[in-house]
Write a structure and sequence with these properties.
With 135 residues, the protein is mostly helical. The protein contains four helices and no strands. The longest helix has 21 residues. The N and C termini lie far apart (88 Å).
Length: 135
């Protein structure tokens, strides 16, 4: 089956262009109508005219006041929080041995490896790192 080619005038606008031209023409007509519209009424009449023209949506019904369950009055004041003993500042907090950054990275990668294998039962990072960094 042969395709039929419709010859078109090269100067004629395409369908989309014609649609855009029609939209542009209607917008121009609307702008002209708005410009030719009468001037608004003085301010004393404006509110009245606006109220007649655009009715507002009804307001939602009022909610009844919320009623909370009565709070029981405490008979005795709550117990005072337990005071903690003062901190012992006579000794410095525990710290890891000094080591180079490279050694710290090696120990960290070893720890991650044995943790993934599940061999860290009963061992904490600080204990492992102290042994690893002093080697």
């Amino acid at each position: 089956m042969a395709k039929r080619v419709i010859a078109r005038d090269p100067g004629a606008p395409s369908r989309p262009r014609r649609a855009y031209a029609a939209i542009a023409a209607s917008l121009c007509a609307l702008a002209t109508a708005v410009a030719a519209a009468p001037q608004p009424a003085p301010s004393s009449e404006r509110a009245h005219v606006a109220a007649r023209r655009a009715p507002r949506a009804p307001t939602p019904p009022r909610r009844p006041p919320e009623q909370h369950a009565p709070q029981p009055t405490p008979e005795a004041p709550p117990a005072a929080p337990r005071e903690l003993p003062p901190l012992d500042t006579s000794t410095p907090p525990p710290s890891l041995p000094r080591a180079s950054r490279e050694r710290m990275r090696q120990c960290a990668s070893q720890w991650m490896k044995i943790r993934q294998e599940g061999r860290t039962v009963g061992t904490r990072w600080r204990e492992f790192a102290t042994r690893c960094l002093t080697r």
